[in-house]
Structures are given as C-alpha cells and as structure tokens.
Amino acid sequence: MPDRIALAWSSGKDSAWALYKLQQNPQCEVVVLLTTLNAEHNNVISHGISAQLLACLAAAVNLPLHQLSLPSPCPNEIYNQIMTEACAQLINTYQVSHIAFGDLYLEDVWSYREHSLQGSGLQPLFPLWGNNTAMLAREMIGSGLKAYISCVDTTRLPAYIAGREFDHELLDSLPSHIDPCGENGEFHTFVSATPFFSKIIPVLVNGVQEKDKFAFANITTTDNV
Q1: Within this chain, do residues 197 and 146 fall inside the same structural domain, yes or no?
Q2: Mean pLDDT in residue range 1-28
Q3: C-alpha distance from residue 35 to each of 94, 101, 134, 162, 201 (Å)
Q4: What is the domain range of residue 92?
Q5: Residue 146 and residue 119 share a domain
Q6: pLDDT, tens only, 49-96
C-alpha cells in the first residue's frame, strides 16, 4: 500500500510541482491538501491568494482542501496548538502518515518541519529537496506550468514584479543574487495551469497593493467552483 500523504499547499509553483512528483511515485498517494490562511483576510499566508482561488486549485487537482485559519499575529503557542489539532484531524479523517512540503534547500526549514512534527504521528517528506533551482524553474516552465508572481519582498525586488508571469523572460531578468524559485522569500507565486491540472484557471491581475515591505498582486479569476 502506498503512503497516504497530506501536501502543504501554498497555491504556488513549488507545492504544485511537489504534487506532480509525488503523483509519479507509486509509493505515494496524495489524499488531501493542507493550507494555512490569514483569518483576518481569508487568504493564503505570505502569498495573499484568496480562498476562491484556492478552491479553484483544489478542483483542478481533484483533491479535498483542509484549511487552517490562523490569527494575525499568531503567537507560537497558538500556532503549535492549531497544527497539533490539524495533524490529529488529518490522521483521523484521511488516514495520512506523512506531510509533504515543497521546500528546496534551506536546512533550517527542514529542521523546523521535522521538529514541529515530532510526536504528531506524521513524518515530513520533501520531494523537491536538493534540486538545482535554476534548472528546476526552467523545467517547470518548459512543462507548461503557468504561474504568476503573487507577492514580492520589495527589499529584494521592485514592486512591479508582482503580477508578472513566471516565465523565461522573468528568469532572465532576475539579478544573480535572487533565487530563481524564490526560495529565500524573494517572491511567491500562484499557479494557474500545469500539465496535470484538469483545467486551466483563467487569471486576471488587477493592480498591485503594497503593505509594509511587500507588494501583493491582486489576482482574481472568472472561474466558478
């Protein structure tokens, strides 16, 4: 029997590509997507993607979506309590044994994931770990994956990058110190199409909103779930 897996689902390219890799592995079966939302704005933390777009993505990959609403700010003890309860729910409802993440190479993130899951009954998986991010970014785009920059750290990149398509032209324009996949938090994405989606999600970008040091693209869709 394959391992039953919950996938940490950010709405971005890395989590989508992690799903693609897991679905190619006969020892793995992804049975549910797990997403954390900002309770105040009802959107994906860090990415700024709406619950409506999340629902469209879940429909496109034909998987249930388990959403966790977190207060902002979210103290560590509250976060840990919510995640502990979520792990128990995932085990009881979906009989999962692992949670998969789209992390690429940050050792401190790996350690944090492992530490936070200790005693939960779940094991972490990192299907993209160790990939060369320059090659990985090109591979994603070459496969037909389509994504948009949903959030930019304006201390690292200009605000006008928000809303742009994640394509070869964008990669060619990035400064050499910027990771091509945004692994250091330089930018986040929303993925609207991949070869394994059941449908393309039509995307509209209606301007950019800046808050603190971040620029968020106002990404919407005409799709209905």
Answers
A1: yes
A2: 96
A3: 15, 11, 26, 22, 19
A4: 3-125
A5: no
A6: 999 999 999 999 999 999 999 998 889 899 889 999 999 999 999 999
Is the domain of 217 the same as that of 119? no
pLDDT tens-digit series, residues 121-140: 999 999 999 999 999 999 99
DSSP for 96-120, written as a single string: --EEE----S-HHHHHHHHHHHTTT
Q: For residue 203, which phi and psi values (nearest 5 degrees)?
A: -115, 140
Measure CA of the first residue to CA of the last residue in the chain; give whole Å.
32
DSSP H or E segment with residue 3: strand 3-8
Q: Which two tokens stand for residue 24?
A: 């190619």
Which two three-digit tokens encode residue 12? 């971005």
